[in-house]
Design goal:
Helix content is 40%, strand content 17%. The chain has 293 residues and is of the alpha/beta class. It has one domain: TIM Barrel. Helix 7 links the parallel strand 9 and strand 10. Helix 6 packs across helix 7 and helix 7 runs parallel beside helix 8. It starts with a strand and ends with a helix.
């Protein structure tokens, strides 16, 4: 069983050193992937429901530091050589896909092919309004964005025609090291599972217990069969997040078809020493059990 670490940085001083330390220490301790979040803006007043709390309220402060994920991962890439660098989750429909494709490909090129694009359609409607992107039909927009980015990553001369994305005869370099970048879709709803099985390279379920993982993986496998895809084409990743979980639960996740479990720590490190301790303590608690799965 692979283990990932969800990296939230709460620093007001030395953020670069803390990011590098957390990534480097995570790599040294055997974590497979380091994940970083994305929100372009947060708002003080919102009607949207945060999907991972009973009240629907976002659990953090609106003044919380949520750094740009690609700049953060670039900093982490400078201090590592093996660990995967993943967005958890990039809000794809908030981006221009041509620009996003260039950013992702450049990071992948620089770090030797270690990037994973965790992708989602977003939950905070007010954030979309602030950016000037329509909230409606964001799932359809996401699909076109991903399709267009894959063209830009793979083709020497790229063209795409859709409802939201259009370009003709363009060249975008550098290319990702492996010819493309894995797109892992987040979300736990039926449509999110279908996105993963229809055109994703994986699924990242956040706030998912072992029992919930079993049911959702079975649903994904059903859709894969309908689509004529193999189970081996999809990577299954989950985070317990607020759900009670212990190292003993890793076997239950494994038996349910999960490939990687991401550990989310509620406290973000504010110093280099706290970053070291976070990676060390998390590895000490979880890594032995993961190795035995």
């Amino acid at each position: 069983m692979k283990l990932g670490l969800f990296a939230m940085i709460g620093a007001v001083a030395e953020p670069m050193a803390i990011m590098k330390t957390l990534a480097q220490r995570s790599e040294q301790r055997g974590f497979s992937t380091v994940w970083v979040p994305e929100h372009v803006v947060l708002v003080e007043k919102y009607a949207s429901r945060y999907p991972y709390s009973e009240t629907g309220a976002f659990p953090g402060s609106t003044t919380a530091t949520i750094a740009d994920p690609f700049i953060s991962l670039t900093a982490m890439a400078c201090a590592t050589s093996k660990i995967r660098l993943a967005t958890g989750i990039c809000l794809v429909p908030e981006h221009n896909p041509i620009v996003l494709a260039k950013v992702v490909a450049t990071l992948d090129w620089l770090c030797g092919g270690r990037v994973v694009l965790g992708a989602g359609i977003g939950w905070l409607e007010e954030e979309f309004h602030a950016i000037g992107i329509p909230w409606e039909r964001r799932a359809a927009r996401t699909k076109e964005c991903v399709e267009a980015m894959r063209r830009l990553w793979a083709d020497a001369l790229s063209s795409y025609r859709g409802e939201f994305v259009n370009f003709e005869g363009v060249r975008s370099y550098p290319k990702p090291v492996r010819g493309s970048v894995p797109v892992i879709f987040g979300g736990e709803s039926g449509p999110a599972l279908k996105r993963s099985a229809d055109y994703g390279n994986g699924w990242f379920g956040f706030n998912v217990s072992p029992d919930e993982a079993v049911a959702k993986v079975k649903r994904i496998e059903e859709i894969l069969r309908i689509n004529g895809r193999k189970r081996s084409e999809l990577e299954i990743i989950v985070a317990p997040y607020t759900k009670p979980a212990t190292p003993d639960d890793l076997k239950r996740y494994r038996d349910g078809g999960v490939d990687e479990v991401v550990i989310v720590n509620p406290r973000a490190p504010r110093t280099v020493q706290e970053a070291e301790a976070l990676a060390d303590d998390t590895a000490r608690k979880w890594m032995e059990a993961a190795a035995n799965c």
